[in-house]
Design a protein that fits this description.
globular; 6-stranded antiparallel beta sheet; alpha/beta; Rossmann fold; 15 strands; 3 domains; Beta-Lactamase; 14 helices
Length: about 450
């Protein structure tokens, strides 16, 4: 059978593929139309590899030179094909093969799309994206499991990570800073899975968050004053609520003359200051050695003469070292914690301190937390897909065995929805004045008491 015959046969399959999905197997997937150009793309891909060969891996070639060589060779290889292809088909095939060679295959169009915030691969046949806070399934797919695994290997290999049966899950990042999580069999029962949290090439600013409705101008100004006044701030919320983005925005208020050390599992923070030292943890090697944890880096950061320590996320015993740093002269530190509410964040910190393996009484841990944390900024992703700051809460101190808190600003859920289904609510002041105002005044940061005047909530 010639290539033209196979192409015609594939198009027949494509026409017949639009049937309802059939349940069965470990996962119920929507049926995917067969790619009528799959055979052509395989042939072109192979021809490209034969033509360029070692040039694809020549470290002396810049990315621009490599892209130019790939695209020129693609045109030559395509011209040799006898398949009945239109100009549009040739352009599409050339782009998809180039994406596979130079980028991340079928994911590349979504990674280039500024409106897509997350890409989720649930197996080689099923890809979801998040757009405007809502999930949708797309028609794109990988050719097979091997194609998906090859793309995962390419991503993790760029940052010196590995993924195989002995180390079947990994956190990595793309060159633009986007966060990648991959997990493969035997942990992923139904095949390899990949999740990419995209990061904007241009970091979001406080003006962007105000425009999105994440927070209001008065609250943004208040939080910037708290950062300049060297309060220890914890950004909390669930997965995908915008904690890292908010941490980036808050960090923009740090004065340029301060020395900042950032500590992360996978480097995501994009601080705008010049004096920033970025540290990243390291997993164990194939022999199980060489691991460097967040906790190790926090301890090392204390010897680097930091003015501020910014920890991308606290999730284990590093919480103890972070609290110690906050309580020993490193005021103004910032971090994030996964939690459902501000109160839950304090409970999680207690639990994570116990994970450090140090036997401390619960009261001693709570005293450390109450002394270290000044302010909690809590975010949530609402039903309309928007990400909002729902609480700005002060940690006041201890009363008996309980850490006391007071909400300074709360999101007004009582305002209902507009005609597009979006929440009308905004952050409103509760009327409570923070106890740390005197501390801010001592550091040269003055706040107008009118900012905390009670605002009536909708009923």
């Amino acid at each position: 059978m010639t290539l033209a015959d196979r192409l015609a046969e594939a198009k027949k399959v494509d026409t017949a593929a639009g049937q309802p999905p059939v349940a069965g197997g470990p996962r119920h997937r929507r049926a995917r139309n067969a790619d009528p150009f799959a055979e052509v793309k395989r042939t072109v891909h192979q021809g490209l590899l034969e033509s360029l060969g070692p040039k694809l891996y020549d470290a002396r070639m810049s990315q621009g030179e490599l892209e130019q060589a790939v695209r020129q060779t693609l045109q030559v290889v395509l011209e040799r094909e006898e398949a009945p292809l239109t100009a549009g088909d040739r352009t599409r095939i050339a782009q998809e093969v180039a994406d596979d060679i130079l980028g991340n295959g079928p994911l590349e169009p979504f990674l280039r799309d500024p409106e897509v915030s997350e890409v989720m691969v649930n197996g080689f046949e099923q890809i979801y994206i998040e757009r405007s806070g809502r999930l949708e399934q797309v028609e794109a797919a990988f050719a097979d499991e091997h194609h998906l695994r090859r793309t995962i290997d390419k991503i993790v290999g760029r940052v010196g990570r590995r993924i195989d049966e002995s180390s079947p899950m990994v956190d990595a990042r793309l060159p633009d800073g986007s966060r990648v999580n991959a997990i493969i069999p035997p942990l992923a029962i139904d095949g390899a899975m990949l999740t990419i949290r995209k990061f904007s090439a241009d970091p979001l600013t406080v003006e962007d968050l105000i425009g999105f409705g994440t927070l209001t101008r008065p609250v943004a100004d208040f939080l910037a004053s708290c950062v300049r006044g060297r309060l220890n701030i914890l950004v909390t919320g669930g997965t995908g609520t915008g904690k890292t983005t908010s941490l980036n925005v808050l960090s923009a208020a740090i004065p340029d003359d301060e020395r900042i050390v950032t500590i992360e599992d996978a480097a995501e923070l994009q601080l705008s200051q010049d004096h920033v030292l970025r540290l990243e943890s390291r997993p164990p090697n194939i022999e199980g050695r060489g691991q460097v944890t967040i906790r190790d880096l926090v301890r090392n950061a204390l010897r680097m003469r930091p003015d501020r320590i910014v920890v991308g996320e606290v999730r284990d015993g590093a919480a103890l070292d972070m609290l110690q740093a906050m309580n020993t002269g490193h005021d103004g530190s910032l971090s994030t914690v996964h939690s459902n509410t501000p109160r839950d964040a304090l409970s999680r910190l207690e639990t994570m301190v116990l994970m450090a393996g140090v036997e401390l009484p619960v009261r001693a841990i709570r005293e450390q937390v109450a002394s270290a944390i000044d302010l909690i900024v809590h975010l949530a992703r609402l039903k309309d897909g928007t990400r909002r700051v729902t609480h700005v809460s002060e940690v006041v101190g201890m009363e008996s065995e309980i850490i006391t808190m007071q909400d300074l600003f709360l999101f007004d859920f009582g305002m209902g929805f507009d005609e597009d289904g979006r929440h009308r609510g905004v952050l409103r002041s509760t009327g409570l004045v923070p106890a740390f105002l005197g501390e801010l005044n001592d550091r040269g940061v003055t706040l107008d008491h009118a900012l905390f005047a009670f605002e009536r909530f909708a009923r």
